[in-house]
Amino acid sequence: MADFTMDEVRSVVEKARAGSASEPSGTMYKIYKNCPLLLKSSVNLYSKTSKLCLPVSSVAEEYKATKARAVSTLLLSKDGKVQHASKSIRCGRKWKPQEAVSEAEAHWKHQEIVGVVCQGRLGLGHYNTKRWSKANTKGKRELAVQRVREAEEEHRRVKAVGLASQGQ
Asked: How confident is the model over 42-95, as pLDDT tens digits?
């Protein structure tokens, strides 16, 4: 995605009807026409080259990471009743934190079995691998949350690639 200049954005806003709304946010162009400082701050937030950029992570990613952290904390407890309480964590219909944490555990165990795969000209011992079996409970919780974040980032990347091919 190419970066845009303030002049390009200003020309688009001037050409647009005042009552129409911009696609992603639903903000009316009328607001930008009447308040040029707001337009400048919005351009700076969404520009890649400005000093202040919006973060790439989404609210859904933070929500999923928080739920996964809570479930992994309960699952990795030494007390059996506390482990059983992990099944009572409420979430939406489509995404289950228990499944995500068990998938993360399976991922890290599989990663441990496969080992380090050679990439390029680097030899053995150049990568720091994280092992599920050697991690303590805090480390396992961090690995589970990291995998949930990676899965969400992968989902976002797939969606972006699909949108890019749709526009051509």
From this structure: 666 555 565 555 555 677 888 888 889 988 988 888 888 887 877 777 777 888
Enumerate the domain spans of the chain. Answer: 6-46, 59-167
CA angle centred on 55, ends 13 and 68, rounded to 5°: 135
Asked if 45 contacts 52 with a C-beta cutoff of 8 angstroms, the reply is yes
Residues 6+ apart with CB under 8 A from 9: 39, 43
Q: Is 69 exposed, middle or buried (0-12, 13-18, 19+ CB in 10 A)?
A: middle
pTM beyond 0.85, yes or no? no
Strand partners, 28: 21
How many other C-beta atoms are found inside a 10 Å radius of the C-beta of residue 64?
Answer: 21
